[in-house]
Write a structure and sequence with these properties.
The chain is mainly alpha-helical. The protein has 2 domains: 148 residues, no CATH class; 89 residues, no CATH class. It is built from 13 helices and 4 strands. Strand 1 and strand 2 form a beta hairpin.
Length: 253
């Protein structure tokens, strides 16, 4: 039986990773924080829109309602894209939106899940979304189901012993500092963790599965920040993943 509080990702090579899911209660707390942030922004906008009262109270109210709903959508979509699946509320509570495979969100997913907030919020107090979150297998609201996303918890992991794992290993990727910075920006904590787990478990993997797993991970990381051929042409898939993990984790220590 699969626990409802865990998203299990199984690679084609048979390697399984688990990501802890955010429950309805923590998601509602994050939402409450986000609504408070939106309310503060809205109070500023209300003053900015004050001059519209010269056209009548009904016009000013209608414009304010439209602006408020636009603010809700823009706030959620912008924050989740630039903060890689987090809003202020999610960031404070250690939550993050990822797609159903644990990867980074695509722009279309961000847009879809935030557009459907309007439906999840019906009839009031996010009742539809709350009910869906309680009864869906992976605690997904309607926006998550439509976009293929889940919200996970991102507990702080102890810093891995990189000196032991990477002892004596030269990291050619670190030489191109601007590309290394791009990797730190684009590699999600979840994918960094999967890369680290793969390195820690590599000796327990079947040789063919080990080759295929590191090939897929290396191809994923290569696409995020393409390096000049002269820096990486002699670098195999497993060393490539090891170097990426070192760059990402050492930037946090």
């Amino acid at each position: 039986m699969i626990a409802r509080d865990t998203l299990r990702i199984r690679t084609p090579e048979g390697v399984e990773f688990a990501l802890p899911l955010a429950g309805p209660f923590s998601r509602m707390l994050a939402l409450a924080i986000d609504l408070a942030v939106i309310a503060m922004i809205d109070s500023v906008l209300e003053k900015v829109l004050g001059p519209l009262l010269v056209f009548g109270e009904d016009v000013a109210t209608a414009v304010h309602v439209v602006v408020y709903f636009a603010l809700v959508l823009v706030y959620g979509a912008t924050a989740e894209w630039f903060w890689r699946g987090q809003t202020v509320g999610k960031r404070l509570l250690g939550l993050r939106v990822v797609d159903g495979r644990g990867l980074r969100l695509e722009p279309a997913q961000v847009i879809v899940r935030n557009l459907l907030r309007l439906l999840d919020a019906l009839p009031a107090f996010y009742l539809v979304g709350g009910v869906a979150c309680v009864f869906s297998r992976y605690h997904q609201r309607l926006g998550d189901l439509a976009a293929g996303t889940v919200v996970i918890r991102t507990p702080a992991h102890g810093a891995p012993d990189l000196d032991k794992l990477l002892a004596g290993k030269y990291n050619s990727l670190a030489e191109a500092r601007h590309l290394a910075a791009r990797l730190r920006q684009k590699v999600t904590p979840e994918m960094a963790r999967i890369g680290l787990e793969a390195l820690l478990r590599r000796d327990r993997l079947d040789p063919a599965a080990r080759l295929e797993l590191f090939r897929e991970l290396a191809d994923y990381f290569r696409a995020l920040a393409p390096y000049p051929p002269d820096l990486v042409e002699q670098l195999g898939d497993e060393p490539y993943v090891r170097n990426v993990v070192a760059i990402v984790y050492r930037s946090r220590t």
